[in-house]
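User: Sequence recovery, please. Input:
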């Protein structure tokens, strides 16, 4: 288990403070890709996103805020048992529980999308009225993938069953089984396929004042903007629209109590385009969600 009270020895995301007690937000990595259905490698995402963050400025002209204006702590990567999704879920949950007990906001870097499930489960214990905003190419609403219930194709189904489907808001979805699409419509998920920014802006007033967890799969972007991911899906949004979506959430009345960005697989993008855009989105999340 990564300790909060010792310095991380690897790459650190720009602007991180070494003072945990002052930090309002804890950034952490979840280097897991044990259940991916196509291309592995997202376990290397958290470290690479941190490494390339040095190319960015700490100042966001979009939000007129600088990382020096906030206090966040990069706790490094959670050591996870290789190839064991059930144990990894348990370890991630224990880590997020510690963050929540310290009354700090967890923001995670994946890793495959299954890592979102234990994080949301722990945040929900502290915020029973929690809603989830999910930006993704894939519905992730399967009960299992080829018989395996612990899969990166299942986290939103688990979350919908935990929170109630009416508390799940999905945007940008353009891939899934017929059963997944039917489940979303039947159970009352706020389901917005293909598009993100406009339906998100229309939905945000419904969440005014509520605690919200935001999960972003980098493959919500078109592969032209983010080729370095395990399951690229054509027809996605631009990086400009993704940034604008994060800003819309940040400037709304919702209270973001946790977030993550997942599925960066750097091996498939030697240009580093994907981890760089992920790092910029994380900078905007850190600045926009830490108030």
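Assistant: Recovered sequence (291 residues):
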């Amino acid at each position: 288990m990564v300790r909060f009270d010792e310095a991380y020895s690897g790459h650190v995301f720009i602007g991180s403070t070494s003072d945990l007690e002052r930090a309002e937000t804890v950034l952490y990595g979840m280097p897991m890709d044990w259940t991916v259905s196509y291309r592995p490698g997202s376990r290397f995402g958290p470290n690479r996103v941190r490494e390339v963050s040095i190319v960015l400025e700490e100042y966001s002209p979009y939000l007129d805020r600088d990382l020096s204006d906030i206090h966040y702590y990069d706790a490094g990567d959670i050591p996870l048992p290789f190839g064991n999704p059930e144990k990894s879920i348990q370890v991630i949950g224990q880590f997020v529980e510690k963050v929540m007990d310290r009354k700090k906001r967890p923001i995670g870097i994946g890793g495959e999308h299954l890592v979102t499930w234990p994080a949301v489960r722990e945040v929900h214990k502290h915020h029973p009225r929690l809603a989830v905003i999910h930006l993704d190419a894939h519905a992730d609403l399967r009960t299992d993938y080829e018989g395996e219930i612990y899969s990166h194709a299942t986290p939103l189904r688990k979350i919908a069953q935990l929170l109630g489907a009416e508390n799940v808001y999905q945007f940008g979805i353009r891939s899934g089984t017929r059963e997944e699409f039917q489940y979303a419509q039947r159970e009352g998920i706020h389901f917005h396929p293909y598009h993100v920014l406009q339906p998100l802006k229309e939905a945000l007033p419904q969440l005014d004042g509520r605690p919200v967890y935001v999960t972003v799969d980098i493959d919500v972007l078109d592969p032209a903007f983010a080729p370095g991911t395990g399951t690229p899906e054509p027809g996605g949004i631009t990086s400009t629209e993704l940034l604008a979506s994060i800003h819309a959430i940040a400037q709304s009345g919702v209270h973001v109590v946790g977030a993550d960005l997942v599925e960066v697989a750097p091996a498939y993008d030697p240009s580093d385009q994907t981890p760089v855009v992920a790092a910029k989105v994380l900078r905007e999340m850190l600045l926009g969600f830490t108030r």
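The chain has one domain: 25-289.
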